[in-house]
């Protein structure tokens, strides 16, 4: 069974050939030195959309209004983002996402 460095090499060699899963591969490679981001833990399209909104100084209410979502739905997505990025705050989630190239 290959180790983490072997898997990273294989993934690196295959970049730009993973089609719709390319973003997941890039996330895994970005996290190689740290805690692994499992493929099942990849952010959903809506979570990515909300993550991009978190960079702004807008409130959850404003984000919900613009995305035509309830405040509770936005908060649920934010909890998912924080869990998947192992973040405790909005700022930490943004910093981690920037390091991973998600935003």
Topology:
Elements (H helix, E strand, L loop, with lengths): L3 H10 L8 H9 L14 H10 L5 H8 L3 H14 L5 H11 L3
Question: Could you explain how this protein is built, in words?
Answer:
By secondary structure, this protein is an all-alpha fold. The protein folds into two domains: 4-39, no CATH class; 43-100, Arc Repressor Mutant, subunit A. Helix content is 60%, strand content 0%. The protein has helices spanning 4-13, 22-30, 45-54, 60-67, 71-84, 90-100. The protein starts with a helix and ends with a helix.
Features:
single chain, 103 residues, mainly alpha, Arc Repressor Mutant, subunit A, 60% helix
What is the structure about, briefly put?
The chain has 103 residues and is an all-alpha fold. The protein has helices at residues 4-13, 22-30, 45-54, 60-67, 71-84, 90-100. The termini are far apart.
Low-confidence stretches: none
CATH secondary-structure class of the largest domain: Mainly Alpha
Order of helices and strands: HHHHHH
The number of distinct structural domains comes to: 2
* Percent of sequence in beta strands: under 5%
Arithmetic mean pLDDT: 81
Q: Work out the helicity level.
A: 55-70%
- Category by helix and strand content: mainly alpha
In the CATH hierarchy, the architecture of the largest domain is Orthogonal Bundle
* Shape label: elongated
CATH topology of the largest domain: Arc Repressor Mutant, subunit A
Largest sheet: none
């Amino acid at each position: 069974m290959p180790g983490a460095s072997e898997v990273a090499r294989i993934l690196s060699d295959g970049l730009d050939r993973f089609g719709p899963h390319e973003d997941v591969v890039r996330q895994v490679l970005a996290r190689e030195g740290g805690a692994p981001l499992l493929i099942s833990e990849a952010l959903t399209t809506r979570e990515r959309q909300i993550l991009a909104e978190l960079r702004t100084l807008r409130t959850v209410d404003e984000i919900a209004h613009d995305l035509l979502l309830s405040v509770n739905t936005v908060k649920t997505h934010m909890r998912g983002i924080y869990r998947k990025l192992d973040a405790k705050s909005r700022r930490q989630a943004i910093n981690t996402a920037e390091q991973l190239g998600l935003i």
